[in-house]
Amino acid sequence: MSPARRTSLALAAAVVAALALVGCGSTTQESGSGGSGGAATVEGTGGGSVADRAFSSEPTPKPAPAGTVTNADGSTFSYRSAPKGKLTLVYFGYTNCPDVCPTTMADIASALAKLPDDVADKVDVQLVSTDPRRDTDPQITQWLAGFDPSFKGGRAPIDQVVTQARAYGIGISPPTTVKGDYEVTHGAQVLALAPGGGEVGYFRELAGPEGYAAVLPGLVKKWA
Amino acid sequence: MSRTVAAVASLALLAGTAACGSGDDAPAADDRYGHAATGDLALTDGWATEAPKAPTSSGDATDMGSTMSAVSGAYFTLTNDGDTDDALVGVSTDAASQAQLHTTESTGGGTGGTMKQVARVPVPAGKSTRLTVGGYHVMLISPTRALSAGDEVSLRLRFASGADLDVTVPVLDRADRPS
């Protein structure tokens, strides 16, 4: 094939592409917000709305409650002993939960996998079971390993878990049986704890991987 | 080289056709996710979560005291282009021993949530209903086989109008779910 013919084909391709773009352009504009900023501004840095939508800061850290959780790996998690040099993310959830709980864990894992090691290594993730009767140690271990084997999870008697969660403002309840259905609650938010367990803020429900990725570097720098 | 150019041209043409073809209100079907249609009902953005196979020794599915966590969620958007309200009233699949409709209800003033089984998911006339994380979802209880990313799950959806809709949805890593 001659170079000239090649050029004409390339031109044809360009024309077709341009037509396609023009043809769809109007559709795009109709559905767009029409603002001058566009998506680039929304995704921008520096107090951007991604972070604001994902995280709510406490004006002053909310003090840690007493109480401990016995983790599936045999270790003990104490809120007031949340480790130095780490930011601890605490989630109240359960493993027989197909919807919000695993999505929350998956989104945190996804964010940590994308962040640099010097940030990700300073974030601990702690699941506190809201269904300690059914969440066995092997089940917790297997469930967490599906997201990130470094995540920890454990149990305490449910009344203690409810008290611990409510101290931080998370309104879970003990599981109940309603009309034959075993109903378990989970927390909506994920707590961010500084060393010593003071809650510096919380990630809103379903903050998404982008939300965690946008907020965690700043939190780690400030608190861990 | 020229073949590449021609291919680019065809692709551009195809992309243009596909993008511009959706002039009406029907959501464009994204082939990364399951989609199907029957009559005035269309399903788009269908997918299911990964889950281990349920242990065969477990007897009663409601007594999960000794079973490993084995439950998948299926999600999609339903669009009703007709003039009559409809509702999703049932799902059947060979991929799980039970398929139930659930919703996640907010508790504790928005600081908690719990799942409730529902009998129907409304799909009003001329509207779309999105089943999504934190809202309506199909709970696939005790999968009959391990569900891993790349697998597919066949679902039959039953509607109040009597319509049945068969769809095959991909099993996805949650990170790849429709935004």
TrEMBL record, chain A:
**Highest taxon of source:** Bacteria
Q: Which UniProt keywords apply?
A: Copper, Disulfide bond, Metal-binding, Signal
Got any disulfides in this one, which pairs?
97-101
Q: Where does Cu cation bind?
A: 97, 101, 186
GO MF annotation, one: metal ion binding
- Give a yes or no for keyword Lipid biosynthesis in this entry: no
Alphabetized Pfam families for the sequence: SCO1-SenC (PF02630)
How far does the signal peptide extend, from start to end residue? 1-20
Q: Which residues form the Thioredoxin domain?
A: 58-224
Presence of keyword Membrane: no
Q: Which InterPro entries would you find in this protein's record?
A: SCO1/SenC, Thioredoxin-like_sf, Thioredoxin_domain
What segment(s) does the record annotate as region Disordered? 27-75
Q: Where is the composition biased (Gly residues)?
A: 32-49
Q: What family does the Swiss-Prot or TrEMBL record give for this protein? A: Belongs to the SCO1/2 family.
Q: Which PANTHER family match?
A: ELECTRON TRANSPORT PROTIN SCO1/SENC FAMILY MEMBER (PTHR12151), LINALOOL DEHYDRATASE_ISOMERASE DOMAIN-CONTAINING PROTEIN (PTHR12151:SF25)
Query: What protein is this chain from?
Result: Thioredoxin domain-containing protein
Automatic annotation (TrEMBL), chain B:
> Which SUPFAM superfamilies does this UniProt record tie to the protein?
DR1885-like metal-binding protein
The protein's UniProt keywords, in alphabetical order, are: Signal
Which InterPro entries does the UniProt entry name for this protein?
Answer: LpqE-like, Lxx211020-like, PCuAC_sf
| Listed Gene3D superfamilies | PCu(A)C copper chaperone (2.60.40.1890)
- Which parts pass through the membrane? none
Q: Which Pfam families match?
A: PCuAC
Segment forming the signal sequence: 1-21
Query: Per its UniProt record, what PANTHER family does this chain match?
Result: BLR7088 PROTEIN, COPPER CHAPERONE PCU(A)C
Q: What name does UniProt use for this protein?
A: Copper chaperone PCu(A)C
